[in-house]
Amino acid sequence: MKSMSSRALALALSLTVLSACGSALAAEDDTMLISPAPSGIAVQLNGEALTFTDAVPVAQDGRTFLPFRAVFEAMGAEVSNEGNTITAVRDGKTLTMTIGSTEATLTEGGASSAITMDVAPYVDSTTWRTYVPVRFAAQAFGCAVGWDQDNQTAVIVDTEKLLDAALAEHQFTYMEKYLAYNQQFQEGIWDISAQFDGSATMFGAGPLSFQGSMDGTTADSLQMAAAMNLKMDLTAFLDAMSQVAGQASELTAEDQALLDALKSEGMDMEIRADMEKGVMYLTMGGSALETLGLPADTWYSFDMASMYGQMGLDYTALIDASKTMDASALLQTALQSADLSDKDTAYATVSALVNGAAKVLADDSFVKSGDNYTTTYALEEDGTKVTLSFTLTMQSDKVVGYELSMDSSTSVDDGEGGQITTTTAMKAGMDAENHMTATVSMGMDPLMDLSLNITGDYAAGDQTPETELPAGATVVPYEQLIAGALGG
């Protein structure tokens, strides 16, 4: 079982790493799709090239496969092969796969979880060697995986090894206390109320302003029911867009009625979700939506496992991690957003992120001021600047509140001799009375600006949320709604 320090550091590192390199996520190839299929593939583990003797990496069906025994032994695992079952054991984790099956099992601490792969292990008919898909094989043991297209190299970084090394050099008692504080909100029933407002502009047009409220209940952080109302004022935005287009703003009576309804009545929304089952339902109401052709009393369903799967994430593993607050899976996902597309820099990049973040989150990096303990993090490279501040409020040697703030800016060439700068400022926190506040502002000059303010309260509840639909409810898959909106 992982120590409290491991879990606390992993949770905190996830946030820090995501803050530092989240913009790289869109550039990552999450499926390890190989194009074109290479004639020879190299593999790098923790910055070192792996040597293969009687069986070499291959590309098949657009995926990279590695010799089972060679790659797992290089990662420090003990392997066995009995019939169609192949097994790898490392650091208390047992990965079991079956030849020809996309279903695998990962067992740790007596608990097993299923992993669904998009391709199956197979036996090469020429060498009689067993091959496994590199991404699933490596991620099962907490490794980050990338692909260097130019050098036809699969890049593997053992993030668990890096994490263990960071833990050995520092103490993280403050983060342990924060994890214990945060755990209370993951257990039991909590009633949540919130109010929010904000505005947005696009190409100087606007603002589009909005405001709303939400009341809901959660149980063990996995079941949820919430009701929300959202009001929007589109008048200034539409007027400005008409001026940009050089046309007068002429609205029909029906259009004006729609705008008036959005501003005065708004849209009503209700959400019911059971995240453990992987289902979420949403219904919307209001005269504005009925005018747009969305029928009342219709619930839209979301298949969470499918949605996360399309993003390359194992939904079951993430839910299992959330139950125990073991954030290793979240850390692995965060580190996957680092740039692993260059074999010459990948390992150094991930190592620097883990070691730098670990140092910032260690006890000796927190500065005391009254009841507050604050640590800061800064990064500046390749046109990106990030500063992060994390403050814990302590009373009687326990965390009773926190504040997290982050500011970032990224500048890129616009292709015409200038630059486009994107800025983000976020601040979120909760005080000792469980009152929460959050502010977010984003800007991409001169394209858009967005601001959002949220306030709310958590209070212990006594009634579990309703996650089932009303009897006889009309249910429409979300994909069907999107297809209809796109004319599909």
Notes on the protein architecture:
Helix content is 27%, strand content 42%. A hairpin with a 2-residue loop joins strand 20 (367-369) and strand 21 (372-381). Residues 1-12, 17-39 and 325-330 have low confidence and may be disordered. It has helices spanning 4-21, 68-74, 134-139, 159-169, 173-183, 235-244, 253-264, 287-291, 304-310, 315-324, 328-336, 346-361, 478-485; strands at 42-45, 48-49, 58-60, 63-67, 78-82, 85-90, 93-98, 103-108, 111-116, 122-123, 130-133, 143-148, 153-158, 189-202, 205-219, 223-233, 267-274, 279-285, 298-303, 367-369, 372-381, 384-395, 398-413, 419-430, 435-445, 448-460, 474-477. It is globular and about 75 Å long. The longest helix is centred in the N-terminal third of the chain and has 18 residues, at 4-21. It has two domains: 38-149, Copper amine oxidase-like, N-terminal domain (Copper Amine Oxidase, Chain A, domain 1, 2-Layer Sandwich), CATH 3.30.457; 177-486, no CATH class. By secondary structure, it is of the alpha+beta class. The strands form four sheets. The protein has a 14-stranded mixed sheet with strand order 20-21-22-23-24-25-26-14-15-16-17-18-19-27. A five-stranded antiparallel sheet has the order 5-6-7-8-9. Strands 2-1-13-12 form a four-stranded mixed sheet.
